[in-house]
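Hi,

Apologies if this is the wrong queue. I'm a grad student, and the batch job for NLRC3 protein from Branchiostoma lanceolatum produced an output file that my downstream script rejects. I'm not sure whether the problem is my script or the file. Here is the sequence I used:
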Amino acid sequence: MESVNSAVVGTGDGQEPKVRHSIDMKIDVDSTVCDGRDSFQPDQAPSDDEKIMEVQTDVLTNALEEEKYDLDSSYDEDRTDSEFSMEEEEYHSDVFLDEDEDQDPPEPGMTPRMALKGDMEVQSDRQVSDMEQAEGQLCGADEETSGGLCMVLSLGSYHIRHVPGKQEYLDTCKQLGVVPVWSFVRMMRVYRLRIRHRSLGPLGTRAICVPVALSPYITALDLEDNGMGAEGAWHVTELLKSNQLITTVNLSYNNLGPEGALAVAEMLVENKVITSIDLSGNHFGESEGVHFAMVLKENTTLQELILKENEFRENGARLIGKGLVLNITLRRLNLSWNHIRNKGALAICTAMKKNMGLRDLDVSWNGFSDAGTIAMAATLKVNVTLTDLDLTNNRIGPTGVRAIANALLVNQALTTLRMGKNNVPYEEGTILLKAIKKNKNSAMSELDLMLA
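Support response: The file is valid. Your script probably expects a header line. Output copied below for reference.
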């Protein structure tokens, strides 16, 4: 038996640090325009064509050095998923230098963008139109996302090459009257597509689904907190019914409601590829429990189901429990923050006596109380597959703690038990440790009794 961290092993949410969603393409005036010299003019005045080529080459060189990426990086199959995450803002779209002989070089002391905006009249009508359209489209995007990219588009020297679905996305945005998310346009070659907190709404979500359906790269789709509602959920689920690449989906905090729950459930019954889905904070109520009971009964590929911060309460938990009895493939279930008490808690515990597939169960921040905890203790005596159990903040008192201690005398599967933020006096905490020590076949390696 491994040694037990006696009092508390603190656990955190493990969230990744947030990264600003912007392209940090900084162009230094001195290094870009004047190359460290006091004057832009060389000893021998170059021709206009040579000036243009020098400025454009310097701009591209400095931009690429700042970005630190290789032109062929989007085709590197050896990269890990994390390198392609949208949160890290890796720039995988190919860019190339567009030599435009109509452009004049910037005046000394001016950035390339200032020069182009000031000398707009020397460019062709097509260029002016393209630049105005690009900047106009960016005006609707949030400042974090569009700030760096606005410089790239207004320079007129950088263009994103054609990628599958790019033009279809722009056409759909124009048709629906929504502003394109340009950070998405340049990330169409990533494996993990993350677009969070962009207020896409139903129409913006519909537009996003068009290129995602055409992408041969995307295997993880994260659309957290975009206000898509039930209508947006319908568009996403229609996409996922036929998609054979995407295995991880995050639709959390999108106000999907009852209709969205039904759309997602019907998709999960039909989809045979998705292994993980996060549906947290979508206002699912007691009646929506029947939809996820159906998913647990019918789906044989889903391994992780996150339903935290909804409102399943007693009846919803009871329905989900019925589905758990028949499921053998789900490995992780998160039902935290769902107002599960009394009969709902008993239903989940009873189901876990028969379920032989689940490894990780999170029912923290509910109201199991002593009665529900006693039922969970009875489950731990017979369940041989559950390894991680979270009972944090469940109104558990000394009676419930003693019941868990008795279960730990015989349980040989559990490795992590979290019971922090409950009424666990010192004496009862000691009883838990003694029970683990007494069980020679115990697998326990982490016990969390943190009070705050």
